[in-house]
User: Fold this.
Amino acid sequence: MFGAAALLSLSLFAAVCGQQVGTQVAENHPQLSVQQCTKGGGCQTQAGSVVLDSNWRWLHQTTSTTNCYTGNSWNAGLCPDGATCANNCALDGADYSGTYGITTAGNALTLKFVTWSAQKNIGSRVYLLASESNYQMFHLKNQEFTFDVDVSNLPCGLNGALYFTEMDADGGLSKFPSNKAGAKYGTGYCDSQCPQDLKFINGEACANVVGWTPSASDPNSGTGMFGTCCNEMDVWEANSQATAYTPHVCSVQGQTRCSGTSCGAGADRYNGLCDKDGCDFNSYRMGNTSFFGTGKTVDTSSKFTVVTQFITSDNTATGTLSEIRRMYVQNGRVIQNSKVNIPNMQAYDSVTDSFCNAQKTTVGDTNSFESRGGLSTMGNAFSQGMVLVMSLWDDHAAEMLWLDSDYPVGGNVTAPGVARGPCATTSGVPNNVESESPNASVTFSNIKFGDLGSTFVA
Assistant:
């Protein structure tokens, strides 16, 4: 994910900076079934549910309904410092549909973009739970992951994303005793952007209260001194006009707190712990502008199936990850991924280390993917287990132009890799997207995972 959300903490105060749980709103996780499949036994339905990320939740005084955080600023009286804030404040349950526009029905999850209740909510991020207190962990080497998606109601500037990150199964509950909320309340997020906008890291609210800088453009967000990094596999980032799938790898394993240069912010982008650019396969960017979109080969005006296969060098679950393949199924027809159509590149149709190296060289990008271990590192993360994330968001950092338009803005659009989608370079301004497309939504459904060739009909 090119730009994403974030976190914060300070271990000095770990004993007193707890992530407490409130009692004002009951936490009832929306149910979402998934299926695990084998070649010999077919697909078996598993009961599951989703949980809202802790950063979206109401944070209030433990003894009242007074907000500890409003808009993009902390309550100075309740949160003069991290230790006092953590003692004074608690996360609470969520009204999933009424406040956040999150609904489920059987095996389908719908995320609405703008939801009005007492306040205006923008987007959401949820995780798949295996139980009330643990995330579902995915080990996908020599496996495939399949889902249906409807992006017909996602215009330029939005991103309905489905991806995996190397979060702890319990949201950090056992690793950090100060975390009293855990996976039940959506804690423990990390990704390859080493995000610095979350109110809690490692169960603590001790670092980003002091030095917190409200965003100049986002009325609901800000940044602190610390972030949280981990490996990330972007299986799906898309709207109705463009899509990409992208592995991002880090020099660390598991959720890791960063500060300063190690977070890779700004000019330090390529000096941090993680590969923020990733190795993306975007059909439009790779020279096939007629493959994905309304009325195109993969027609985004109606629902379709996305199949992603994680191939290993020896075709076993313990082998080295060597290739990530993509297929689509729509109207009963299997659609193979598009092929690269750029001068000086082979006609690759999947993500391999060779593809990544060739792409970086041809388009002139820094190859931080290779320097952090490439697909082997991504495979190691899946060996440890990764958490499924589904989200809908707009982009205050780069207006989603890196996904669906010309990027960098002002670049030579005839140069390889600059044109990434057909959207105008003015199309992703968050204020405009929010006012013009508040009812935008994405629906993910029919999630399946298991043996290669077991989750779809060829």
Remarks:
- Residues 3-17 have pLDDT under 50 and may be disordered.
- The chain is about 10% helix and 30% strand.
